Amino acid sequence: MQSRRFSPLPLIGILIVIYFIAGKLGLMLASLHASASPVWPPAGIALAAILLLGNRVWPAIFIGAFLVNATTAGNIATSFAIATGNMLEALAGAWLVNQFAGGKNFCDRPQGVFKFALAAAISTIVSPIFGVTSLALAGFADWTHYGAIWLTWWLGDATGDLVFTPLVLLWSVASKRRWNKKEAAEVGALLLLLVLLSGLVFGGWIEISGRNYPIAFIFGPVVIWTAFRFTQRETATGIFILSAVAVWGTLHGFGPFVRETENQSLLALQWWTAVLTITAMALSAGMAERRRIEEELQQQKAVVETANCTKDHFLAMLSHELRTPLTPVLSAVESLETEPAQTEDTRSALAMIRRNIELETQLIDDLLDFTRLARDKMQLRFIPVDAHLAISDVVEICRAEAASKKLHVHLNLQANMHHVAAESAKFQQIIWNLLKNAVKFTPEDGEITISSSNPSPEVLTISVRDTGIGMEPEVMRRMFDPFEQGNRSFERRFGGLGLGLAISKSLAQAHGGTLTAQSGGRDCGSTFIFSMPTLSPAEVVTVHRKTTSEAAQQGLKILLVDDHEDTCAALEKLLVRRGHLVAATHNVRSAMEAAVRDKFDLLISDIALPDGSGMDLMMQLRAISKIPGIAISGFGNNGDIERSLQAGFSEHLIKPIKLENLEAAIERALAG
Questions:
Q1: How far apart, in Å, are the Cα atoms of 609 and each of 18, 356, 571, 615, 652?
Q2: How far is the C-alpha of 161 from the C-alpha of 44, rounded, in Å?
Q3: Structure confidence at residue 366 (pLDDT)
Q4: 275-295 b/e with 16+ CB inside 10 Å = b?
Q5: Which one, of 169, 368, 387, lies nearest residue 281 by Cα?
Q6: At what angle do helices 8-27 and 58-70 cross, to 10 degrees?
Q7: Distance (Å, rounded) from C-alpha 503 to C-alpha 508?
Q8: How far apart are alpha carbons 205 and 198 in whole angstroms?
Q9: Helix axes 76-100, 58-70, angle to 10 degrees
Q10: Complete DSSP assignment for 88-109
Q11: What is d(CA 663, CA 204) in angstroms, rounded to the nearest whole number?
């Protein structure tokens, strides 16, 4: 809470005048003794002044209190003693509030409100001790009434602190809240309702008000409404209005607090006002704290979302930059693999290069897949998949790696119902990760067994069991956590990111299945069990393998566009060897010029080009012909693929491009 800046000297003079007027008004309600009023606003005004302006304004409180009492009762000495007590009370209250309640910001939190109430109750003991004792010693108060006068004096000061200090502090600062028309109307309706209820209870408008029935509880919902819907300023203002009407009504004999004497009536009213004020201000502070926390959370959420977007953009760019150089290398390897008369060393070297390229690609894919799964951005397109066929394909892919470690891979596919609804590539990725994990952690001459069964016709269970290093119980508990590889020594020994199992578990759940692990302990092997629902025979659609199209067999005129010269040259060489006629260009302008000069059967284009994008090129070509297109890019998020398809491409291949994937994409593009 930042107060407005004022010059202190004029304010000291203004404070003396305000204190004097408020004191005279308060003493008009004194009935038990001329100097003891159960309603004493100057106490709250003095405390608020010191909290706002500091201890230097104590002379204004002393002078104001001296003038009030010197013109009321007693003599110079008693007026001096009372003024001293009022001044010390305000200083003590301010010290307690500053030390324990958060200073002038005590209304910001519920605990601050409660600590302020306690500070007010303690500090207001000072003034009645000085005042009542000096009056009794000077003979202006009867010692037999000392206790009653003291209680009246103390309660008036304490209630003055509770009601007026928050009111002054909250109205001394500019409100940060900006009201719209709806909120302004609600505030108006609330104040009107408060006035109406005050008139009903304390105004004598109806008979029940004059009979003093205990109906003050009807203000509860209004106070709670104010505290929950609006700020502390509106709550403090409402309590002040209610308190003023209640004092007026009680003095005129209306309301539930009327007693035998005027002083007893006001004391009963002030007890109620004190409790209501503490409750309402604590509720209001609690709601204000909640709103602040919500705003902070929204700000933090915005920061996190911005960071996530930045991270996603960085990962996408990193993926593109890492994938692009791999494409010409892989293309060159595939070209060299077709060369005749290779030596054994050459074939071994090419196989080694291919394995490492595929490993690098898989690491990139794992990182991006984990990011998409963590943000629930993975979009899966389910089709009927033959799980046995998928398992067999994965085993063939990994057979060479398993053979290099002399591992014996056994298939025991016994399930009768083995068709599932899945995205083929992601389903294979689950099996691939499990088999790769088994190969990685199984020593030479070990065994790996992949089995399938149907615990029930509706469930397919696939298990991958190995005779590898196994897992201890503490490792089992965190095996599916991201970046987890068990013992730290395994990371140095086996490498990898530790994302394969985490991705597999998330993909299994995305397919409506489960993935669990079992192990007898260290060096006892591991078993991973993947279960998911099966498809009934009626739901299975047999998808025959597509044969190479006639056009593809005869050779195509292909427009190849890629600004990475090595990638473009490597792909051109591969396509030419397959019997295609290729025109290679490196930007949108030269590609359009080539398309104007000649007619092409197929466009293969990178997405990121120096003078535009492959999507722009595709849309321009589609405007003049029905040429099919294949997008190639290092960007492989779902959004990237969707934008490519929307631009008119039939396929979107992610770099590095494998020859078999490119040939399959060409067939699909031409068939489509």
A1: 76, 28, 16, 10, 16
A2: 4
A3: 63
A4: ebbbbbbbbbbbbbeeeeeee
A5: 169
A6: 30
A7: 8
A8: 10
A9: 140
A10: HHHHHHHHHHHHHS-GGGGGGS
A11: 94
Q: Find where tokens 């005590």 sit.
A: 106
Q: Strand, helix or coil at 294? A: helix
> Residue 411 has which token pair?
């298939």
Nearest one of 179, 202, 199 to 191, comparing CA atoms:
199
Closest CA to 282 of 132, 110, 160, 26: 110
Q: Which of 391, 457, 460, 363 is nearest to 421 (CA)?
A: 460
Contact 446, 500 (CB under 8 A): no
Q: Name the helix (H) or strand (E) containing 111.
A: helix 110-123
Six-digit token string for 481:
């956590």
Sequence-distant contacts of 212-218: CB under 8 A, at least 24 apart? 212/254, 212/255, 212/256, 212/257, 212/258, 213/256, 214/256, 215/256, 216/255, 216/256, 216/257, 216/272
Strand partners, 608: 613
Helix (H) / strand (E) containing 229: helix 219-229
Tell me: the pLDDT tens digits for 505-530? 888 888 899 999 988 888 888 999 99
Longest dimension (CA), the chain: 128
Number of neighbouring beta carbons within 10 Å of residue 543: 11
3-state secondary structure of 556: coil
Cα 148 to Cα 154: distance, rounded to the nearest angstrom: 10
- Identify the CA nearest to 167 among candidates 89, 82, 85, 104: 104
How far apart, in whole angstroms, are the C-alpha atoms of residue 661 and residue 657?
7
CA distance 369 to 503: 7
What the block records as the tokens of 215 is 């109906």
Radius of gyration of the chain (CA): 42
pLDDT for 493: 46
CA distances from residue 420 to 307, 428, 459, 464, 505 in whole angstroms, order as listed: 38, 12, 9, 18, 17
What is the pLDDT, as a whole number, of residue 154? 97
Helix (H) / strand (E) containing 39: none
**pLDDT tens-digit series, residues 84-135:** 999 999 999 999 999 999 999 999 999 999 999 999 999 999 999 999 999 9
